[in-house]
Amino acid sequence: MSTHILAIDQGTTSTRAIVFDHAGSLVSVGQLEHRQIFPRAGWVEHDPMEIWRNTREVVGIALGKANLTRHDLAAVGITNQRETTVVWDRHTGRPVYNAIVWQDTRTQPIVDRLAADGGVRRFADAVGLPLATYFAGTKIAWILENVDGARERAARGDLLFGTTDTWVLWNLTGGERGGVHATDVTNALRTLFMDLQTLDWRDDILEVFGVPRSMMPQIRSSSEVYGTAESHSLLREAPIAGILGDQQAATFGQAAFDAGESKNTYGTGNFVIVNTGEEIVHSANGLITTLAYRLGDEAPRYALEGSIAVTGSLVQWLRDNLGIISDAGQVESLAASVDDNGGAYIVPAFSGLFAPYWRPDARGAVVGLTRYVNRAHLARAALEATAYQTRDVLEAVQQDTGSPLAELKVDGGMTANGLLMQFQADVLGIPVVRPTVAETTALGAAYAAGLAVGFWAGRDELRTNWREDARWAPTSDRETMQRLYRMWKKAVTRTFDWADD
Q1: Phi, psi of 416 (to 5 degrees)
Q2: What are the pLDDT digits (tens) for 426-452?
Q3: Are 99 and 67 in contact (CB under 8 A)?
Q4: Which one in 178, 223, 333, 450 has a CA-CA gap of 20 to 30 Å to 125?
Q5: Statement: residue 392 has pLDDT above 90
Q6: Partners of residue 265 on adjacent β-strands
Q7: Using CA atoms, how far apart are residues 12 and 81, in angstroms rounded to an integer?
Q8: 46: which DSSP letter?
Q9: pLDDT tens digit string along 190-225?
Q10: What are the CA-CA distances from residue 321 to residues 111, 140, 314, 428 (Å)?
Q11: How many CA atoms lie within 13 A of 344 on its CB side?
Q12: What is the DSSP string of 405-434?
């Protein structure tokens, strides 16, 4: 009897396989990190073959820990780092270049070239997104323009493109021996090529970017059976039945299914998503119009998204680049050893600033330094930067929707940091609520897969699985918080107009 769902979470820093039971409880986890490759300043890459090897291994780890086999699995769901771009040969399965990660900024010249005719919102009415290095379209164009022979091979129909969900799905279902080349609507939109209303590729935009349609995967819903795992896999014949980009998956895992419901995920970056139902809302305040999900043949659900590039990765920077801490878990105790930030602010514009500013010319800055500031103050400033950036986005959400949030649902690894969560509640002035299952990204992919095969009856059943684990209410006075936030806004302006090449 099929009693469990497996979710593959292919993230920015690691790949995980997580087994869930019918109650939505986490049963077991397999996880492996992959290399972060930085060939030049602003360039970020991953090795797709390493990701695929790790995917196979973590599936074995998770099943082994749970003492399960493929026969115990009703379905498999996939969630993934969005926008990260893989281009590979359909005949050999070999990538033509490393995966270009969503954080990578090398394509700014392509953005500038395309924006010269119509500005950065040239295609926004159709696809909901501004021209930016963030999205996959410019990354595909860069590979075709810069990898020897890639354009000619693409023109012959030899090359395929996919975000990492597509790369994993294609390999899971047979690879060069007939693998399924598909993606779901939430990932397809992040290319700059999918029409918000028709949910199909825009041939006119593909032509402007110089990308052959033959490279593009088939666009499917977020919850349906795409294919089954190949015969050589540990998952042999298990249906692959759910795909959601990581932030949409986290929203789905938080049971934020309807208009007005939202969540904030604290990971490598932070991502606020507010469901707008069947209505397409175009932001006037720096947010992205995106897909929330689509279940089978149902009407798609849309959302507004605020994407913040650097939050958890700022803690990694303190560890790996500055040596202020030796383990990411130490940042909370170090930050708690001082009462405040000592007047120091860190604005982590390592890849420019994303929502709501969209300033590719910005670069990271530490401001307000005096001889009084020590490493503990910097650790606290790093955590506070996450909370301030979240407020920036939520203020844009309120301006677009006219409805302030009563509370903020949160998930992701950084929500284990109680100091950060309390400061987040203080700077927002509303409660912050964490669910029992913090791994909502993988849970959302599991839910999508389970719905497709009838493992769960519907969204109402999934709502009953959501349970509150912790709640932080505001404790600081608003006048103090307003002053600190005002200083943050001043610090942000100091990062503008730095990159001038």
Answers
A1: -75, -15
A2: 999 999 999 988 788 999 999 999 999
A3: no
A4: 223
A5: yes
A6: 271, 411
A7: 6
A8: E
A9: 999 999 999 999 999 999 999 999 999 999 999 999
A10: 29, 30, 10, 30
A11: 24
A12: -S-EEEESGGGG-HHHHHHHHHHHTS-EEE
